[in-house]
Amino acid sequence: MPVTVSSDNLAILETVSKVKFAYGIARGATHTFLFSYGEVFEVHWEHEGAKLYGSRSFKDYNWFSGALIIPPDSTFTSEEIKAR
Known about the structure:
This protein is α+β, with helices and mostly antiparallel strands. The protein has one helix at residues 7-16, and strands spanning 22-26, 31-36, 39-43, 53-57, 66-69. A hairpin with a 4-residue loop joins strand 1 (22-26) and strand 2 (31-36). The chain starts with 6 loop residues before the first helix and ends in a 15-residue tail after the last strand.
C-alpha cells in the first residue's frame, strides 16, 4: 500500500527526497532496495534484461514497514519532526 498522503507525510517525504543515498529494508525485512532523491531502485530477480532493474517514486512504493539507513555523508540535513 502506498504511503498515505497527509500534510505531515508530504512534509516528511519532501525532507527525505533530499537524501542523496540510502539503503532500504521493507516488508518485514524480506525486501531491500537502494534509495536516492525520492526514488527507490530495485532488482527483480525473477526477470531478465530490461525488466531486471526498476525504479519508482518512494511516494508510490509499497512500503508496509521497514527502515531507511542513511549514511552521515549523504548530504542530508535533518530537521526535527514533531509528533502530533
